[in-house]
Amino acid sequence: MRCYCCSSKSFDECCEPFIKGDKHPSSAEQLMRSRFSAYATAHYQYILETYTKEKQQGLSVEDLAQSAQGATWFALKVHPTLAASSVDSLVGNSVSSTEDSSIDSTVHADAKVEAVTNAEPISKTNLKSISKPITKPITKPNNAIVEFTAYYFENKSMYQLHETSNFSVEDGKWRYHDGVLHDDCGKIKYGRNLPCVCGSNKKFKQCCATKSR
User: Fold this and answer.
1) Per-residue confidence at 151, pLDDT binned at 50, 70, 90?
2) Residue 202 CB partners (closer than 8 Å, separation 6+)
3) pTM (two decimals)
4) Strand ranges inside the chain, DSSP E
5) Is 198 helix (H, G, I), strand (E, B) or coil?
6) How many domains is the chain built from?
């Protein structure tokens, strides 16, 4: 089965080893992808443990599960981020992992999401930090930025969460700290005959649209 994070790998060779604790992500992007897969498979303990220690304070597995209730996460797109790539290369030797850190970030079709007037505010914030937005640019070598768009269904409607996230290394492991949401977050319309956002090369109506039922 193809991984939930929409990489070119199967789940058991991509995100599952991280979620099970058999391996540790060797880059911020790998951690972000594995956290998305954890949301898609309801592994909230992993999500909690992969926050920075500071952000874990005041959070619980129950909080995360409740915030995700009613949402079906089905596709992920990672946007090219020069800052994340360059910083990851600096800290690669400090993160203990046997996993190849190279992941294809261009796994999605180039289909453009239709513009939505008066887009509804996003109702799920579980992929962003439950904290204040980033206020300082990332400058330290043990930090990285990853920009992504996550897609989900709620009440048979399609939503997207577009975030630029802040990751840092703690105790030799990548951790999610916080993120800033973009203005295009919210309910969207997507043509049923367009290529599916998951990058399967199938039409949306024949692929992920079926998960909204």
Assistant:
1) very high
2) 195, 196
3) 0.76
4) 72-79, 143-154, 157-170, 173-181, 186-188
5) coil
6) 1
